[in-house]
Amino acid sequence: MDWLPAAAAPLLGASLLALVLLRRVKARSAPQTPQQPRQRRILPAHVAFIMDGNRRFGAKRFGPARRLEGHAAGGRKLGEVVDWCLRAGVAEVTAFAFSTENWHRDSAEVALLMRTFVDQCSEILKHAREKRIRCDVLCTDATRLPADVRAALETLETETAFADAALTLHLAVSYGARGEIASAARKLAERVAAGEIDAGDVDEASLGAALALRSPPDLLVRTSGERRLSNFLLWQMAYTELVFLDKHWPELAEDDFDAVLDEYARRQRRYGK
Questions:
Q1: In sequence order, what E strands does the chain have?
Q2: Which of 74, 143, 168, 232 lies at a CB distance of 3.0 to 4.6 Å from 54, suitable for a disulfide?
Q3: Is 231 a known active-site residue?
Q4: Lowest model confidence (mean pLDDT) among 29-33, 77-81, 161-165, 243-247
Q5: Is 102 annotated in the active site?
Q6: Where are the transmembrane segments (predicted)?
Q7: pLDDT attached to residue 237
Q8: Residue of 83, 102, 141, 258 marked active site
Q9: Would you tell me how many other CB atoms lie within 10 Å of the CB of residue 271?
Q10: With DSSP H G I counted as helix, E B as strand and the rest as coil, what are the percentages for the chain, rounded to 5?
């Protein structure tokens, strides 16, 4: 500071020190902005799940003799996954709970699954009322379901018919996609026979409107390492993004789901363009 008068130099130094201290005080007292959640470029509106690997999880966790206990663990996991979807902003979830092909399993396992469905319907109903989740059942062969299972599923639908639902959960029980498509075709054929529509009016739009599920999933997640659709939503998933995970369904963690959403956001959906 040779260019300043000697008397002015201490004053300037004191002023600079005061300015630095003032800035530090302001920085400490400034309100902290809360960390914002990570924004994703694209979010699926509708996610479908093939909840595979319950028996394998049961054998791994409880031993081969108790492998069927994995089904109850799988039912509990569905409630967790629905909560993850709610937090992420997903509007629809479709869960493949029991296929028409599953009726060919051992009768003891089928009976256990039916009891599990009744128990899980009660749990899902409590959860749905609390979170305002609308439940919808997709079933292409209801005649084979025991009466108590049908009653539990009907109650679930009736008691959760929220007009302002935060999320819609579609439960596919005794469901097969080929049967769903055949049923839709039969409905249209009956309308043609009744003179309500002409055969020439039957197109993709009319067939799609006759299906049990009209909303196509944006994303399918299948667990347990299997890489096939297993007669699930064959019509609706013509352009669905598919993600296959090696974990068994009850082992799925929220971090896994976040990674799946990130993978979905990285993909480009061209629809043939």
A1: 46-50, 92-99, 133-138, 167-175, 219-222, 241-244
A2: 74
A3: no
A4: 29-33
A5: yes
A6: none
A7: 98
A8: 102
A9: 6
A10: 55, 15, 35
